[in-house]
Structure formats: C-alpha cells, structure tokens
Amino acid sequence: VPISVDGHAAGAFYLTWWTERRALTDLEVATLRAVGQQLGALLRNVRLREALRVRAERLSALTGLNHEISASLDMNEVLTQIARAASMLMDVPLARIWLTDTPHRVVHGGAIWDAEDGPPFPRASVPFGTAGAGWVADHAQPLNVPDVFADDRFVHREWWRARGFTSYLALPIIRDGEVIAVLSMIGRRPFRLDDDEQRLLESLVAQASAAVRNAALYRSLDDVKARLAETLRRNESILNATSDAIYGLDRQGRAIFVNPAACAMTGFTTDEVLGNFPHDLVHHSRADGRPYPRRDCPATDSLRSGAVRFVRDEILWRKDGTSLDVEYTSAPILEGRDVVGAVVTVRDATERRAVERMKDDFIATVSHQLRTPLTAIRGHLELVLDTEVGPLTAAQEKFLRVAIESADRLGDLVNSLLDVDRVERGRIHIRRDPVDVPRLIEDVAALFRVQAEHKGLTLDVDLARVPPVPGDYDRLHQAFSNLVANAVRYTAHGGVRVGVGPAPDGVAVVIDDTGVGIPEGERARLFTRFFRGEHPTVRGQAGTGLGLLITKGIIEQHGGRIDVESAAGSGTRFRVALPVEPQGDAGDGEDSRR
Amino acid sequence: MAKILVADDEQFLREMVAFKLGNAGHEVLVAVDGAEALRLASTRSPDLILLDVMMPGLDGFEVLRRIKGDAALSRIPVIMLTAKGQERDVVAGLGTGAADYVVKPFSLKELTMRIDKALSGRAQA
Q1: B96 CB near a chain A CB, below 8 Å?
Q2: What residues of A are in contact with residue B104 (Cβ under 8 Å)?
Q3: CB-based contacts of A247, cutoff 8 Å, min separation 6
Q4: Nearest to A371 among B16, B104, B108 (CB)
Q5: Helix (H, G, I), strand (E, B), or coil: what is residue A412?
Q6: CA distance linking residue B37 with residue B29, whole number of Å
Q7: Within 10 Å of residue A30's Cβ, how many Cβ atoms?
Q8: How far is CA A24 from CA A19, A35, A36, in A?
Q9: What pLDDT, on the 0 to 100 scale, is given for residue A541?
Q10: Which residues of A are less than 8 Å from B106 in CB distance?
Q11: Which residue of B has its CA nearest to A419?
Q12: With bands split at pLDDT 50, 70 and 90, how would you rate the model's confidence at B124?
C-alpha cells in the first residue's frame, strides 16, 4: 500500500496473511488506502516539524550572529561568527572567509570555523583564478561543486581526501561592485539550497560585507584618531614648552585656553583662569595703580576690530599682588571674516627692561663724558677768539671760528644722539600742557631771523587764531626749530614762510621755502638716520642728519603727522598737523620712571 | 661788579668760566664739589652761584635745595650748569628756586648774558 505525501509516493507498507489465501475485499482495500494516506499525513507532519526545528535553529544562529556583529568591532571575530553561522545553516563542518587583495589578485585565508577542528587547508592564500575561492574572487559568481574530485580547480586532493570532504560551495562577498571577500563552505554531500537557505546565505554575505567595510572604516578611524592624538600631543607640548604665556580667549574675552607658562608667570592655576576674564585677573590695573578697564585692553580691541596689537611696557599682576614687566601680542582668531576669539601671547620683559635701563645709563654717561671736554674745548676757543688773552691775526681768527663751529656741530650731534635713541624707541617724554602754537612759532622764527637776514632771505610768519594744543613746549620748539633751520639752510634765494592755521581736528603748521627742494628719490629716506641732502649746493652745510628723524618722533608722540611736498628746484613744503584732543595712550606707560 | 661762586668738579671748566668772568670784571670764587659750594655760599655770601648738576657727593640739585632752604642764602640767584637730557630735572630745579639753566656744551657768551640777566633780576628784586 503506498504512503503518499502531497500526492507523491513517500513509501509503502504491506500486509501478509499467514492463515489463509484469499483476495481482499473492496472494503479492506479502501481501508488500507486510507491507512496509507494517514501514514503519509503523519510522515508529513514529522518532516514539517523537523524542518521547523532546523529553521528555528538557523534563525537563532543568525539572531545570535547579529548580536555578535553589533557587539564586536573586531572584524576577525565577526567573520568567525559568520563562518560559524554558515556552517550551521548549511549543516557542514567547515566554513571560511577569504579576503580579497584585488591589487595583487590574490585571496588570503581569513576567519575560519571548523566544527571538527581538523587540519586546515594547506594554502594560506591562493591567486585569483585558482582553487575555489580564487575562482569566485576572479569571476564574482557563486560556485557550487557537488564533487571536488571531478573538478580540475581543486588540486589539493590529499587534504580533501584526508578530511573526507567532497562538496564545495562558495559565494562572493561584493561591495560597490568589487569582490572584497569569499565565503566558502565545505561538506560531504552535494549542496542543495532551498529558497530559505538561499535567503539566509545572502543575509550572511551581506553581514560579512558590512563587517569587512566596518573594519576598514574602523581601522581608518583608528588611524585618524592616532594621528589626531599625535597632533594634539605635539601642539600641546609646544604650547607647554614655550616660556611665553599664552591665553586663548573666546568672543567675550573669557579664557578657553591657558598654558603652564601663563600659570607659572602669574600664579593663577588653570582652573582659576579658564572661564574667567584673564584681564580681570592679571591686567586689571596700570603700572601706576590706575584701574585698567577691560574695554581699554588691546585684547578687547582685537576681539572688537580684528586688529593685531603689540604692546610694550605694560605690567601683569600676579596672584600674590606683585607685578611683572611684560610685552604682549594680541591677535584675533578668525573664522572666515568673523572674529571668534583672540590669542594673547605674553612675554616677560624684565630682562629687556633691565637691558634698556643699562643702555639708557650708558648713553647718558657717554654723552656726559663727551660733553665735558667738548665744553672745555669750545669755551677755551671762545676765550681766545674773543681776544681775552691777546690780539689775533685775521687768519687765527678765521681758523678759530671754524674750530668753534665744528665744536658746535659735535655738540649738536652728541645731543641729537640722545634724542634719536629715545625717538627710535618711542620713549620721548611728552608733557601735556596747553601750547599756544602761534606764540611758539614766533619764538622759533625770532631765533632764525638774524641768520635768514644774513643770507639775504625773508622769514615771514602768517599766524591765524587756533586753539591751544596739548603738548610739550620745549619739544615742539625743538621740532619746529629743526624744520625752520633746515628751510633756511637749504634756501639760497627767496625766503621761508611759516603759516599756522586750523586743521580738521587740530592745528596745522606749514613751513614753505624756495630752496633746492628734495628729489623724489630722496623723499623716502628723509626721515631716516643721518640722511643728508645730496644736492651739490647743500653738501657741506652744517647739520647732524638727525634733525628730521627727531622732529618726526616728537610730532608723532604728540599724536600728530608730518608730510613733505617738494620738487627738486622749486622749494619744499613741510606740513605738520597736531591734534587738539589728547591722543589716547601716546606716551602712557613710557618714561614713567623719569 | 659782582661776586660769583663757580661750583664744578671739572677743573678745566671751572678755570675757564672763572677766567671769563674775571676778565669781565667779576670777583670769582671756585668750589670743587657740592660741600665746598655750600660752605663758600654761607661764608663768602656771593651775589650769584653757577652750579654744576653732576658733581660727586652732594649733587647740584641737593646743593640748590639746601641753599633755598637756608633763609640766609635763599635770595642768592643760582644758574644750573646741566647736560642735555636733564632739562626735565632742571625745570623741576627751576621750580625749587633756580634762576636759570645752561646746557653743556654752552657758549661763554650765552653764559655771561644769562648771568647778567640773573644779576639784573636780583637788582630789581
């Protein structure tokens, strides 16, 4: 009697009678057929139950696999779990992942799952095109070989024989159109995949692909992290090693960074500085004790205007209340055009200040030492020239005059050198008294009137009413004397005219002459050390070559400007503008010890 | 003519100024340092004192301060002989009673003009 399942014969049973020989009745035949059908149904149920159990196991394996993959970023661990799942799914003892090295056209044996723990495949890697994995990598297609001994691609027969394996199934693991790995499974029965198995295998392959890619990403992330850490370490060691104090400020001026040198310099710890205004901690007062509002701090200006500010001769206050001579640079941190913060770099200026003090003392001493004999030379020459020790011949008188003029020139030079040194370091001390500029110009003109008349020149002044200028009468007198002296010196015919009048924001003084003029090429060097006009008619004229440099320094210390207009042969015009409002910090913090 | 005390630690300058003033008909006293200047100022009551700023021991400012602090001497006009760069201090010196100052290297003509001016100022006072 056939046992049929879903209309197919799945088996048969038979009945034998030992007691009699007879034909079966129709009823008996129908009954037996029904029994066969029932048996078929029973068998089907058993098979279904078994299939369900297997599927449940597979699903459970894959669920576990998902968990393993998401829990582990170790590619080898993940691939081993995938191999294990493949082995369970296909019910084979051995599964392995081969990793593709496309540039070298070779696949390397990777994660392996061997349920029997037998001897491994004898090759650690195989070239593209050879063996199962090499063929799959090369062709990017699955390979199902029911009997490897009937296939030329499988050459390591001893191993296959030793392990008793006969069948082979491999699938390419593809990412972005490229085979990145191969999943191979090896068993003892030809592989037959039903739809479910096919789907599950595909899922495994997708997981493997993700794992390989994640591992690559993770590796590159690791590289980036390591490089970043190295960069940070290096930058930090640079910032930590420098002896300059460095503060990083946010947009408001609060500290977002501070280096150890800053803490060592001021005594405030990193915790005390971060998040607070360094200005309020260490920069709150000026050297003379006056409060230093945050809005006046150059760092605030950098944040506001994006300007780089270099400041000398200020002090920082330490936590213990003592102070320190410093110089510092405040530079904006820009993102595009936006100022997002500032970096303030502070240097201990104690040594520099000490050196400057020594230099000041040295220059003062030297100039004193030069002046004393110079005074004796000049005075004694004068005594002789004034015939106080007896009459002179004409030649003697002439020679003595040359000697006295030379001594005067030497004296000017010695005095100018002192001023030049101060001008060049911006250290001329400027008083802030109201100065009546027209009166000042009258005084200066009076000084040169005789000299001008002696040369046959006119010396005119043209004075308008102007407001008083805050300044230093003696220094301004020195500056304008230099300008008028030059005008008289370099003018042979015509005259010199000095005009005073109002200017935007202040007072303008214009000194015109009809002299030799200044060629274009020399104008740029006009305000430099020891510049002397090269014009043949002025060579040999007395002068130190320092006057204009000093003049410019004095004018600028007053917050003013000096320009020159000239054309060779048609005279020169110097224009000085002096502000009426005191100019901010000019002179502040300088010379405070004088 | 007047009695003038010249106080300067530099011998050549001292003698040079003394010679010039002597030729001009003045009676000249010389002091080689601040202490001697003070002593001669009180014992010889000069009409005018030329006082060098940079002297060893008592410097010119200290001598000036003591002269001006001494009721018997405070009316004597003092002209300071100074170096360039010390004007600031000299202006302070004028504030404490110096009549005038002359910057080295000076011309003897200018010096005698300033002396005459200081003496005439004293005469008017």
Answers
A1: no
A2: 371-372, 374-375
A3: A255, A257, A258, A262, A273, A278, A343, A344, A346
A4: B104
A5: helix
A6: 9
A7: 11
A8: 14, 15, 16
A9: 52
A10: 375, 378-379
A11: B85
A12: very low
CA distance A173 to A136: 9
Shortest Cα distance from B4 to chain A (angstroms)? Answer: 18
Q: Which of A531, A536, A535, A530 is nearest to A567 (CA)?
A: A535
Report CB contact under 8 Å: B23, A371.
Answer: no
Please list the residues that pair with A144 across neighbouring strands.
A169
Q: Which residue of B has its CA nearest to A410?
A: B105
Q: Which tokens sit at A421?
A: 């040194």
pLDDT, one tens digit per residue, over A509-567 is 999 998 887 777 777 777 776 666 555 445 445 566 778 888 888 898 888 899 888 87
Interatomic CA distance for residues A150 and A141, integer angstroms: 20
A593 band by pLDDT with thresholds 50, 70 and 90: very low
The continuous run of DSSP H or E covering A577 comes out as strand A572-579
The predicted pLDDT at position A123 comes to 87
Q: Which two tokens stand for residue A568?
A: 């060779």
User: Mean of the pLDDT values across residues A409-425?
Assistant: 76
Is the Cβ of A499 closer than 8 Å to some Cβ of chain B?
no
Nearest CA in chain A to B13: A376
- pLDDT tens for A196-220 read 778 888 888 887 888 777 777 777 8
Chain A interface includes B56 (CB < 8 A)? no
pLDDT digits (tens, 9 = 90+) for A26-77: 888 888 888 888 888 888 888 888 877 877 777 676 666 666 655 556 777 7
Report how far residue A561's alpha carbon sits from residue A578's, in angstroms, rounded to the nearest whole number.
7
- Count of Cβ atoms closer than 10 Å to residue A416 Cβ: 21
Cross-chain Cβ contact A418/B23 below 8 Å? no
Report yes or no: A336 and A329 within 8 Å, Cβ to Cβ.
Answer: no
Chain A residues touching residue B112 (CB < 8 angstroms): none
Tens digits of residue pLDDT in A223-240: 888 898 898 888 888 888
Q: Does B15 touch chain A (CB under 8 A)?
A: no
DSSP A528: S
- Cβ–Cβ below 8 Å for A379 and B20: yes
Contacting residues of A for B109, CB less than 8 Å apart: 382, 386
Interface residue B119 vs chain A (CB under 8 A): no
Per-residue pLDDT band at B94 (split at 50, 70, 90)? low
For CA atoms A295, A299, A303, A309, the dihedral sign is positive
Interface residue B13 vs chain A (CB under 8 A): yes
Is A212 in contact with A181 (CB distance < 8 Å)?
A: yes
Which residues in chain B touch residue A429, judged by CB atoms under 8 angstroms apart?
88
Residues of B in contact with A411 (CB under 8 A): 105
Q: Which residue has the higher pLDDT, A24 or A250?
A: A250
Q: What percent of chain A has pLDDT over 70?
A: 91
3-class DSSP assignment, residue A310 = strand
Which of B84, B87, B108 has its CB closest to that of A382? B108
pLDDT at A462: 92
Q: Which tens digit of pLDDT belongs to each residue from A314-328?
A: 889 999 989 999 999
Confidence band (pLDDT; 50, 70, 90) for A592? very low
